[in-house]
């Protein structure tokens, strides 16, 4: 089978479907695992977009890839502190295909009125703020090695000639060796069809013009090279991820005539979101300072914040 099909079965048809935990109890950490500061900073940024009239009320607020729902919980809790009156002009949604994760999200957000949707194809948003954390690195990908692509047989990686269609895509992006996700293209098509207008804010790790494979496995916070281990032993029992190809991401933003609002390192973005003002207002500065140090020094330079906008013609 195609490597992307193997990836999809591993991650989305089994691993995430079984409602894995993220953080200390899981296989990997994200910025959300650090504490409520990350969601609070995103809430500050969201309010600044409204104040600058980049976003206009009323709004549909949407998280994609919420896992247990902690980012949404932290984000909404911060809005209650910063500007509670705004809630009368917000509708909240989570896009989540997996029933077990929907149950966890309902438990985390038990005091929040929100609507679950399974996919973007099920949605129609007139004016949305959409956010996600480490979403794109979970999209199934192909492994490209010059004129060859990966297939999986009996849990072994084998490389065969590129299909003509994929070869054309790789040439367009100047991709010679690395990961290419056809699901990223499909996501942008669904996003465009589902929304009349939106601002999309995302966090992910990646780089431009990859020259090597970044595919890796995380199990119990240990890193493994999928080219050196028995894939069968890890299949559906661990996280499989890779660096997002930001060249592809920017290409799709331009292709769909979206406006790029932000693209910068995650640490720089979080600082600009309003860290200083949150610290000044906090009654537990020591706790937030500890979280801030972890966010700024434990996530490497590959982590980025990107934000783009669709406005009516």
From TrEMBL:
<protein>
    <recommendedName>
        <fullName>SAM-dependent methyltransferase</fullName>
    </recommendedName>
</protein>
<dbReference type="InterPro" id="IPR003788">
    <property type="entry name" value="NDUFAF7"/>
</dbReference>
<keyword id="KW-0808">Transferase</keyword>
<dbReference type="InterPro" id="IPR038375">
    <property type="entry name" value="NDUFAF7_sf"/>
</dbReference>
<dbReference type="InterPro" id="IPR029063">
    <property type="entry name" value="SAM-dependent_MTases_sf"/>
</dbReference>
<keyword id="KW-0489">Methyltransferase</keyword>
<dbReference type="Pfam" id="PF02636">
    <property type="entry name" value="Methyltransf_28"/>
</dbReference>
